[in-house]
Amino acid sequence: MTTSHAESSAAPAEKQASKYVLQDWEPNNPEKWDSKLAWRTLTITTYSLILGFCVWFLPSAIAPKLTLLGFNLSASQLYWLTALPGLAAGLLRLVYMFLPPVIGTRKMVGITSLLFVIPMLGWFYVVQDNTTPYWVLLTLAFMCGIGSGAFSGYMASTGYFFPKRLSGTALGLQGGIGNLGMSVIQLVGPILMGFSLFGMTWLAPQKQVSGDHVGEHIWVYNAAEFFIPWCILAAILAFIYLRDVPVKANIKQQLDIFSNPNTWYMTILYVMTFGLFSGFSAVFGLLINNQFGRASSIGLPVLGATFAFLGPLIGSIIRMSWGPFCDRMGGAIWTFISGIGMAITLGGIAWVLYNPKGWTDFYIFMALMLLMFLFSGFGNAGTFKQMPMIMPARQAGGAIGFTSAIASLGPFLVGVALSAVGAKGAWTFFLGCAIFCLLASALCWRQYARKGAPFPG
Q: Which of the residues 52, 109, 151, 330 has the least number of beta carbons within 10 Å of its own beta carbon?
């Protein structure tokens, strides 16, 4: 009697839960693929991902303003604030890579969109008090890693919804448009800091206590509060409109990706493309200030915050638009072109930073940096076309998660490295990055890009 009652009560719950799970889903079979659902899923998850990358780069947008508000922070401490979100992202991506087949797309995107709100609220409050302990700032910077940590889960999930012939386009669009969040927060952030938002007159404007505009009002907390309602909207859309695919695997089953050597090779290539792209995007504003701005030995009247959005904007647009080219020509050749281009531009930057002297060197530096971001976009699109082509569907999802987890350490590694070498030694780090790109390009050519390669893709 008790058993029958338990079974009868469990049945409706199971039936109710199943309405969110697609049945007989085979995206590579045109008769069983719902393209409308796939593109709707891509749209909602990409919208959430844009907000996630805004959260990830929130410390990069706020850090250059903190000393203006009276926070007593050194250049090294500011680099650490921009670096920690990268460390958190790498760790969280290792978690998110397992989530799509465990909890499904709908819950993953909905819950994550709500989690974005937590670090935003934290930064909203702490920037209003310049006596906030440094460890609190570090903690909030670390928490911002959730914005990028979600990437490995979102991208792996999207791979389940599209046939292989469209994988490059779909993943390129999601990755590229999502990456735009890095540029959005760095472009819109300084603008939002210029006026009061939402009629919140009860919040007193902050006064600048240093820099060229001492005494003027600034609303730094706006960069955090503005995005909170949009995150809540993303969660609502996810819970209402998203569905799960019938791909199930526990964590132990998913560990087989590590026995596939392509997982490790593609990790190296994605560190080259996205790792360096995200790393230099995070520190671009500070790098300009420390190498050429008033805080440098050169002392040019340039503000890194003015240019910081350009790098991630260029790289993201290229990644977003290059998916169709990768579908047509293959991803490997574009990954190879990316690596060679990045090696040349990074080597050129090392040469410029060895002994920079004035405006001419600044213009050369900016041109080479923006070219480097452009080439990284080619590679970011190329690598994500390669993985679904050279690996089984479930392994490809896990590999995308793992490679993106390691590559998202870019902001942490780049920030820590530049902090360690100092302004005078920055050229050595760029030279090391150039050599790494050359070696990674050789690997790409040998395994994937050349005629007769073992794994063309």
A: 330
Closest by CA position to 415, among listed 314, 306, 286: 286
Number of domains in the chain: 1
In a domain, 457, yes or no: no
* Residue 11 forms part of a structural domain: no
Instruction: Quote the DSSP letter at residue 208.
Output: -
Max CA pair span of the chain: 87
The token pair that represents 95 in the structure block? 């978690």
How many whole angstroms separate alpha carbon 114 and alpha carbon 99? 16
Burial label for 40, CB within 10 Å (0-12, 13-18, 19+), is middle
Residue 16 lies in a domain: no
pTM: predicted TM-score of the whole model, two decimal places: 0.75
CATH number of the domain within which 164 lies: 1.20.1250.20
CB 312 within 8 A of CB 179: yes
Print the domain residue range for 374: 26-449
Position 167 in a domain = yes
**401 contact partners, CB below 8 Å, separation of at least 6:** 93, 94, 96, 97, 98, 152, 153, 155, 156
